Amino acid sequence: PNSQEKAVTLNENDEIMIQIHAKPAAKKSAITEINADEISISIAAPPNEGQANEALIDILSETLGVRKNSIRLEKGMRSRSKMVVIRSDCGLTPSDILGKLKANVNE
C-alpha cells in the first residue's frame, strides 16, 4: 500500500471511505492538503446547522464528478475530523479519487 493508505480506503462493502480534516468558516472552499492520514479541506460555510457538512459534500461531488446522493457523511457530523463514504457504484477506485483530489489541491 502507498503512503496515502489511510486517507482513502475501501470498506468491506467496496465503498470508498475518505478521511477528512475539515476547516469550516474559511475564506474560500479548497482542498488544502493531502497526507497519509487525511485530506484537509477548507470550507467557506459556517459549521452550524450542518451548513459546512453540506458544503463539503458539494465540494467532493464537484471535484470527483460523483452525484451528491452517492456521497454520505458517515462520521464526524459535529467534528472537524470526518469520514465520508462514496457508494461502490460510483465507478471510481481509491486511487482515482486520490488522483482527482491531488489534481485539485490549492494551498
In short:
By secondary structure, this protein is α+β, with helices and mostly antiparallel strands.
Protein traits:
single chain; globular; 107 residues; 29% strand; alpha+beta; Conserved Hypothetical Protein Mth637, Chain: A
Describe it for me?
The protein has 107 residues and is α+β, with helices and mostly antiparallel strands. It is 22% helix and 29% strand. The chain has a single domain (8-103), classed as 2-Layer Sandwich (Conserved Hypothetical Protein Mth637, Chain: A), CATH 3.30.1200. It has two helices and six strands, in the order ββββαββα. Strands 1, 2, 3, 4, 5 and 6 form a six-stranded mixed β-sheet that branches. It is globular. The N and C termini lie far apart (26 Å). This is DUF167 domain-containing protein. Belongs to the UPF0235 family. It comes from Gnathostoma spinigerum.
